[in-house]
Design goal:
With 126 residues, the protein is of the alpha/beta class. Helices cover 27% and strands 22% of the residues. The protein contains 3 helices and 7 strands, in the order E-H-H-E-E-E-H-E-E-E. The termini are far apart.
């Protein structure tokens, strides 16, 4: 049987932080289901398993400063540095051959002032 090429765009990924929940005023989906507080590394592991199994390729964007809780280099408040490092290492080792990586915008939540490291009251909707 001939294979059908599969490509996927993974937008707004981040270590452990549920980026969509950060923007949700209710913490729920439109049909009332609760959104998870975070996305565990086990979810990334399963995604990598599926990508490798089926040869999926695509684009993978990473939010460098998710939820105004720090950044992926210096640490994310409320999360162990080793868990963040695991996420970054896993993405690099298991997805780099099949995905193009790009940073997501720094204004995804509040704008990050790179000169001060502080968040400003400007976001992507301002």
């Amino acid at each position: 049987m001939e294979k059908t090429p599969i490509s996927i765009i993974i937008d707004d990924s981040a270590p452990l932080i549920h980026v969509y929940r950060e923007h949700s005023p209710t913490g729920k989906t439109e049909d009332g289901r609760l959104l998870a507080d975070e996305i565990p590394n086990s979810f990334l592991d399963k995604f990598c398993d599926i990508s490798e199994r089926f040869g999926i390729r695509g684009k993978f964007s990473v939010v460098p400063a998710p939820g105004c809780r720090g950044d992926i280099v210096n640490g994310i408040t409320g999360h162990d540095t080793e868990d963040v490092r695991y996420w970054l290492d896993t993405v690099n080792k298991r997805l780099a051959a099949s995905y193009d990586f790009c940073p997501e915008i720094l204004t995804h939540h509040h704008t990050l002032d790179l000169s001060t490291g502080k968040y400003m009251e400007i976001d992507e909707r301002s």
